[in-house]
């Protein structure tokens, strides 16, 4: 009986360790992440990101705060990325993350989530909400597979704001 329990626990732990990849915003994850703009030379196009502990999902760690300003006179876009190039993302069926907008500074009520195989829009509110993206057909095997959260001056509902991202998990 004890032997069966030990075998079960070993198998369960082995499967659980390969069941998902998680990006922590407390400095302990191995993926690269950060911000980018469509035109780094345009000084009116601003994006800044940092890990904050004042607002998060759960009781520990932090979340990623993304501040953006698409104030350029040209069509521009900016965003946040997570580099999953060291992971075969095609092995996973879902990307799960939490997002919310900052009530004080405002935010676009929609953003695009992009991978190498395409993009789709997600809605943003002032409350933490869980977003689940079906990755089937959304990623390409052996390709760059970089997760992007994108704000575009052509469709953003507000060109300046702050959003928070937390608990990014590939399942």
Task: Outline the structure in words.
The protein has 1 helix and 11 strands. The strands form 2 sheets. Strands 1, 3, 4, 6, 9 and 11 form a 6-stranded antiparallel β-sheet that branches. The chain has a 5-stranded antiparallel β-sheet with strand order 2-5-10-7-8, with no helix packed on it. The two termini are 32 Å apart. It has one helix at residues 2-19, and strands spanning 21-23, 32-37, 45-52, 63-70, 77-83, 94-101, 110-115, 118-123, 129-134, 146-152, 160-170. The chain has a single domain (20-170), classed as Jelly Rolls, CATH 2.60.120. The protein is globular. By secondary structure, it is mainly β.
Secondary structure blueprint with pairings:
Elements: H1 2-19, E1 21-23, E2 32-37, E3 45-52, E4 63-70, E5 77-83, E6 94-101, E7 110-115, E8 118-123, E9 129-134, E10 146-152, E11 160-170
Antiparallel strand pairs: 1-11, 2-5, 3-4, 4-11, 5-10, 6-9, 6-11, 7-8, 7-10
């Amino acid at each position: 009986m004890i032997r069966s329990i030990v075998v079960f626990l070993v198998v369960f732990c082995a499967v659980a360790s390969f069941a998902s990849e998680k990006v922590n915003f407390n400095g302990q994850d191995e993926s690269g992440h950060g911000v980018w703009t469509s035109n780094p030379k345009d000084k009116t196009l601003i994006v800044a990101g940092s890990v904050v502990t004042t607002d998060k999902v759960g009781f520990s760690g932090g979340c990623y705060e993304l501040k953006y300003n698409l104030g350029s006179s040209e069509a521009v876009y900016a965003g946040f990325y997570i580099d999953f190039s060291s992971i075969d993302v095609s092995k996973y069926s879902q990307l799960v993350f939490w997002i919310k907008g900052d009530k004080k500074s405002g935010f676009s009520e929609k953003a695009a989530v992009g991978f190498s195989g395409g993009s789709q829009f997600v809605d943003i509110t002032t409350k933490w909400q869980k977003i689940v993206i079906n990755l089937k057909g959304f990623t390409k095997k052996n390709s760059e597979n970089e997760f992007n959260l994108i704000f575009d001056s052509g469709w953003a509902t507000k060109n300046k704001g702050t959003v928070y991202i937390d608990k990014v998990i590939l399942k």
